[in-house]
Amino acid sequence: MKECSAFYIKRKLGSKQKFSYIISSYLPSLLVFIVFTLLTFITIFMHSMGNQTNELIEVLGSGSIIVYEEYDDGVSICDKVKSGQALGYGEDETLLLNLKGVESSYFNERRASLLKLEGGIESGRNIVLSKTQANELDVKLGDKIVLALYETEKERIRPILCTITGLYSSGYGEFDETLSYVPLDLLDSAIFTEILLEKGEDNTELFRSLIADGHYASRYQLLYQDLLDNVLLSIRLITIIVLLVALVAGFFALNIATEYTSRDKKDIKSLYLMGYSNKDIGAIYRTLSFLVTIISSLLGGAFGLALVYIASFILRSLDPVRYPVLANYVTSFSIQIPWLDLLLLYLALSIVAYTSLYFSLRQFGRGRKVLL
User: Fold this and answer.
1) Residues ≥6 apart with Cβ < 8 Å to 33
2) Contacts of 13 (CB under 8 A, 6+ apart)
3) Distance between CA atoms of 112 and 128, rounded to whole angstroms?
4) Please, which residues have CB within 8 angstroms of residue 265's CB and are 6 or more apart in sequence?
5) What does the alpha-carbon distance between residue 126 and residue 190 come to, in Å, rounded to a whole number?
6) What is the sign, positive or negative, of the torsion defined by CA atoms of 320, 121, 109, 222?
7) What is the distance between the alpha carbons of residues 80 and 67, in angstroms, rounded to a whole number?
8) Longest pairwise C-alpha distance within the chain
């Protein structure tokens, strides 16, 4: 009996059936497919964007840890940095630029990759602009621009003619709109040190060690706390909403079971003639409806993942200058799949779907016929 039931379920799932039958068989679960396409897309998209925002803030903002003096432990990546401000004059536009004075070694492989850097810092009077800034100033790589640099010690503004030796595009408007790089010796402000740890490495232990040794330091999580909290809160809220939708989607399995029992009236009559009880038939259609629900959700998840890659490619090709609304978002990021969150979605769907099917179809084991 079990072998016959398993064979019956396999045939209903599409085993050795025509393509047209398979399509009609899974059509009742179309809503599950659509919902999980969207849920998977939103979950992966938001986590990827959030993680990329966090990395950009760490790598390009202040490093994992910033020490307000010259420091080098001989182990971590430590870069001397200065900061300043200047007005940049283009053909017709003027921009306020936040300058970061760095040495050429500052642009290591990780930073250069995130910045999508073309060129770099050279000796002499030069500057690395973002492509957003270059577009607004109407300049290009190799052009010269005038900087009105404010010297804090002498309390004066000094005009400097700088050659554009590099262009970058981080894909995040918070940096691209204002941040520029100049040689370290071009600025007269105090030197501080950015310590950059390996990707994913916790900076807590090193930070505590620096404080214990009497260094004045801070972590990027503290310097950019409000921004990071907003990103984290957004991801958590979306995760909760997506999880609730997945729970509701589990009840769609009842509609699938209703469609199948209405469609398969002749087949169910044949099962009665073969000696199947109401309980046996209820178990068959509970298993069938549950498997169709899970298969459709997995197909929807795969399609949602494909959409994430397509959306990421499209976003990467859009110019934030032409679409100002993109300036507040990261438009260039690598896809990172949050396996635990996706597992929770499928677990929520599975529990609700099976439970609802169990209590709905178990009545057939209590004497009520599937076909009245």
Assistant:
1) 26, 296, 297, 299, 300, 303
2) 25, 288, 291, 292, 295
3) 12
4) 371
5) 20
6) negative
7) 10
8) 100
Kindly compute the dihedral angle of the four CA atoms of residues 336, 340, 346, 349, in this order, to the nearest 10 degrees.
Answer: -120
Residue 199 per-residue DSSP state: T
Closest CA to 308 of 25, 44, 27, 32: 44
In the chain, CATH 2.40.40 covers 71-190
Spatial CA neighbour of 292 closest among 4, 15, 2: 15
CB atoms within 10 A of CB 11: 14
71-190 belongs to which CATH class?
mainly beta
How many CA atoms, within 13 angstroms, populate the side-chain half-sphere of residue 316?
Answer: 13
Phi, psi (rounded to 5 degrees) for 80: -75, 135
Question: Mean pLDDT per segment of 10 residues, for the chain of length 372 residues?
Answer: 63 63 72 93 90 86 90 86 90 87 90 88 89 88 89 79 90 82 89 90 90 91 87 88 90 81 72 72 80 91 93 77 64 84 93 86 53 44
Task: Supply the DSSP symbol for 129.
Answer: E
